[in-house]
Write a structure and sequence with these properties.
52 residues; mainly alpha; 0% strand
Length: 52
C-alpha cells in the first residue's frame, strides 16, 4: 500500500509539473505578437467578406 501511495504522489507531482509547464507555454503564447503575414491574410479575408 505504501508503494501505491508513493507512486500516486509521484504521478501527482508529475501532473503538477505538466500543468505548470502547459500554463507557462500558454501564457507565453498569449503575449506573442501576431506575425504580419497573418495580419495581412486576415485583412484580405475581411475585405473579401465585405465585398460579397
Amino acid at each position: 500500500m505504501y508503494v501505491e501511495m508513493a507512486e500516486n504522489k509521484g504521478k501527482s507531482r508529475l501532473h503538477q509539473q505538466i500543468d505548470e509547464n502547459l500554463k507557462r507555454v500558454y501564457e507565453e503564447a498569449l503575449t506573442e505578437e501576431i506575425p504580419d503575414r497573418f495580419k495581412d491574410l486576415i485583412a484580405r479575408l475581411r475585405s473579401k467578406e465585405g465585398g460579397q
